[in-house]
Amino acid sequence: MTPKDLSTLRSSEIRLFLDSFDTVVCDCDGVIWNLLNPIDGVKETLGALKKCGKKLHFVSNNCLLGTKGIFDALAQYHDEVKTSDIITPTRAIISYLKEARFSKEIYILGTLSMKEDFQNAGFTLANTKHDESVDSIEAIQEFVDDDVKVGAVICDYDIYLSNIKLIRATIFLRRPDVLFFAGATDRRIYAGNKVALPGPHFYQTALMEVTGRTPLVFGKPSQNLHNYIKKNFNIVNPSRVLLVGDSISSDIKFGILGGFQTLLVFSGVSKFTDMKNIKKENETPNYYLNSFGDLSEILKCKLKM
Ligand SMILES: [Mg+2]
């Protein structure tokens, strides 16, 4: 399959494209904003899709903002956005734990906003008083004992990750009945000026290697996140969903895995040359555009919308 450049399609082909989906699942970083700086035309594109009757949902692996942070940022682009439209690994894990009637404490390697999401959903977090207060290997002895109240360990992006936190997670995970979850599994996290920083993949791998445990992954491009989306948004025909993303390995792979149509945009992580170098069918998008913001202009010019 060769990806189609949406900007060069004829009016009749744009009409067919627009009629081929009912729901848009849109990534946020690199599609709607870059480090929360707006990308031109995206607000207009979201407005035009909404006007056409498309359902809009937003998916993000970013645990730095949390549900409230994503909601506040999205509200500037789309005034009808609801919290329930936002899909994150955290929300998918919460849904999984609620369904399992999980009632023990959770130990989280993750951000403060992620922890808030779990607390707001009614879960109790494990005591973290030792997490930042130990500065000698001897002092570790003080808390190497397990805490049986903890029943789950969740590992996502943690700016304040420490050896101490990894030790505590390891101790909890020695019990086979302790659930082990991973959110985003990115190898790289991009900061200002596109500087690549080590992502959660590396500390998840450390925990896997030392404990022999494999986490249930809920970030893109996991099947668990697809299951959550399909169930929560009653998606019966995945081919009527358009996934918009800026990352081939995360978004496009995720969309294809779930049977969605895919639109790759070059306003974030992946570039045109990366798409040209794709060797695998399961990473090749159906469509591409320089920016999601360009779609509003295309709809205006080609369909007089
Ligand atoms: Mg992205």
Give structural notes.
- This protein is an alpha/beta fold.
- A hairpin with a 5-residue loop joins strand 11 (188-190) and strand 12 (196-198).
- It contains eleven helices and 16 strands.
- The strands form four sheets. It has a seven-stranded parallel sheet with strand order 1-16-15-14-2-5-6.
- Helices cover 34% and strands 18% of the residues.
- The relative contact order is 0.18.
- Helix 3 crosses helix 5 (112-120), helix 4 (89-99) packs across helix 8 and helix 6 packs across helix 7.
- It has helices at residues 11-19, 42-51, 66-74, 89-99, 112-120, 163-173, 201-211, 223-232, 248-257, 272-276, 294-303; strands at residues 4-5, 23-27, 33-34, 37-38, 55-59, 86-87, 105-109, 124-125, 150-155, 179-182, 188-190, 196-198, 216-217, 241-245, 261-265, 287-289.
- The longest helix is centred in the N-terminal third of the chain and has 11 residues, at 89-99.
- The structure holds magnesium ion.
- Magnesium ion is lined by residues 27, 29-31, 245-247, 268.
- Keywords: Hydrolase, Magnesium, Metal-binding.
- Substrate binds at residues 60-62, 220.
- The active site is at 27 (proton donor), 29 (proton donor).
- Belongs to the HAD-like hydrolase superfamily.
